[in-house]
Amino acid sequence: MFKRFRDVLLGVFIGGFTVSAIMTAVASDLGGEWARLLPFSQHNLMTMRQVRNNLEAFFIDDEKLPDEEKLFYGSLKGMVAAIDDPYTRFVDPDQLKEESMEMEGEYGGLGMYIGQRDGKILVISPIEGTPAERAGVKPLDEIVKIDDEVVVGMNQNDVVKILRGSPNTSVTVWMRRSGEDELKSFEMVREIINIKTVRSEMMGNVAYIKLNNFHQKSASELSDAIALAESNKADGIVLDVRNNPGGLLNVAVDVASLFLDGDLVVSLKRRVSRYDESLYADRGLATGLPLVVLINEGSASASEIVAGAVQDHKRAPLVGTKSYGKGSVQSLFPLPDKAGMYISIARYATPLGTIIDHKGLVPDYVVEGEYTQATSEDKQLQKALGVMKNVLLAPLK
Question: What is the SS3 assignment for 198?
Fold first, then answer.
């Protein structure tokens, strides 16, 4: 037994030594050009080779050893994760395809957006009319365990994979809620999530419009809702972006264009200041109806862009609680084999220069409460309707 173990060790050593000798020989031939071509130093590449050799030689469950593609993608994920930014991440081809489907408005799962902050997996917001919302999941609930698997310290993308599954399969998610000692368990059944972007209704003489996300069709659907409000002779609009986790930056500008006529919407602050960028609303699209905007701790990213823009331009007061504070901009960089990586390339600032990242927006009228479809019991909505009466009497200047 010892002899066999010794022979394996010797084989690993000889293999590593051989590869090292070959690389050294090639390096001596190519010189500086070799160093420029390789992503890491020769020493670090040899360490990676040794790690793989050790796994293949000694890992007890050899049938579980991943193939080269999975090992390669795993190394890329680890390299990007070392940046320690939850929004800068590598995505393999299957994951990128799945996320593209989600941005188009339909996917399978529980219906909640999650984010990573201070090492915790937090619910940004449950989606209206989904298993998560029906079960009572709230923004800022911390996901601790899924069925029997503890996910504390896990990457958010891996948590998403565990949460999703075949429709009609059940899953129990254990969460920690701020201010409560005991973990809360939510037993839910997965289903196909059809995301309805806009819901609207007349509340007296005011049009109430709930905007749930910033996907490809969000701006056009919101435009239709505004046109319907105008045809119904609405005196004003309450735009509700509570529990709206955001989405596409260009859609945020398109949505802002429905309320701001050519005004600055957001500035992108990049690593090198000469590449900073300012994005403006289109002209000729904005409605003149008075506006009040509802936000809460589930309002993030694109929601904060729009809310911050209308607040700074005194186009609308904000009602509710402080927003989530997701103020960085990610760009997708395609990679070979249909993989990709998202990189945080900028932070955005409101028209008056406020950086929202990790801070959030403070509403003009702070009102504690929770979003509910029982509108008469929704304290924040009722406050927004009251604020609208004041806006109609004395428009913002």
Answer: strand
**To 10 degrees, what angle do helices 42-58 and 2-30 make?**
160
Provide the total of helices (H) and of strands (E) in the chain, helices listed first. Answer: 11, 19
Q: Which of 77, 210, 269, 326 is catalytic?
A: 326
195 near 108, Cβ under 8 Å? Answer: no
Whether 312 is catalytic is yes
Going residue by residue through the chain, which has 397 residues, state the pLDDT in tens, using 9 for 90 and above: 444 444 444 444 444 444 444 455 555 555 556 667 778 888 888 898 899 899 888 999 888 888 888 899 999 989 998 998 888 999 888 888 877 766 665 667 899 989 888 889 999 889 888 999 999 999 999 999 999 999 998 888 789 889 988 889 999 999 999 889 899 999 999 998 877 789 999 999 999 999 999 988 899 999 999 999 999 999 999 999 999 999 889 999 999 999 999 999 999 999 999 999 999 999 999 999 999 999 999 999 999 999 999 999 999 999 999 999 999 988 899 998 899 999 999 999 999 999 999 999 999 999 999 888 788 899 999 999 999 999 888 766 5
Whole-angstrom distance, CA of residue 365 vs CA of residue 320 = 6
Three-class SS state of 148: coil
Residue with tokens 């009228």: 365
Q: Which of 92, 263, 312, 378 is catalytic?
A: 312
DSSP string, 165-179: -STT-EEEEEEE-TT
| 199 closest CA partner among 215, 231, 221, 232 | 221
Reference 223, options 254, 191, 186, 192; nearest CA is 254
pTM of the model: 0.75
C-alpha span between 102 and 105 (Å, rounded): 5
Report residue 269 as tokens.
Answer: 């602050």
| Cβ 223 vs Cβ 205: under 8 Å | no
Active-site residue (options: 200, 301, 303, 328): 301
Could you tell me which residues are beta bridge partners of residue 173? 146, 186
Name 282's Cβ contacts closer than 8 Å, sequence gap at least 6: 253, 254, 257, 262
Q: How far apart are CA 15 and CA 22, in angstroms?
A: 11
3 state DSSP class of 44: helix
Annotation marks residue 326 as catalytic:
yes
Q: Does the active-site annotation cover 378?
A: no
The structure tokens 């902050």 sit at 117
